[in-house]
Amino acid sequence: MTALSSARNTPERTGNVFGFPVKASVKAIQGGIAVLNAGYAAPGTAATGLVCIGRFEETVDNTSGSNGDVSVQVKRGVFKFANSASGDLIAQADVGADCYIVDDQTVAKTSATNTRSIAGKIIAVDADGVWVKLGL
After folding, report:
1. Pick from 90, 92, 72, 69: nearest CA to 81
2. pLDDT in tens, 29-56
């Protein structure tokens, strides 16, 4: 394709909620951390190569399906998740840094020697959890 030589009406997507095809053999649970795993939505896990896309807005079961058989709504934004423990506990001093996915409801301070994917930016820390900015 060649470069533009005149104005173009470029389509756009607006908003904070988007639909994604779901990975085979997984169940997306409302409120959990949503990631892209090989291009398909899946629950957050301690693994590398995942792209955090937000929070699941609904529960969708694709445990018996193939990649993309169903879709799920995912919202980007700032959400509170459980804080990890001991050496991976996120503190107030970590606000503004990246945090890492432990599972679909827990974030940690470190990548555990490059075995976890980035969840998002730490926005605030409360006694009962960590506020994290998630999404593409």
Report:
1. 90
2. 999 999 999 999 999 999 999 999 999 9
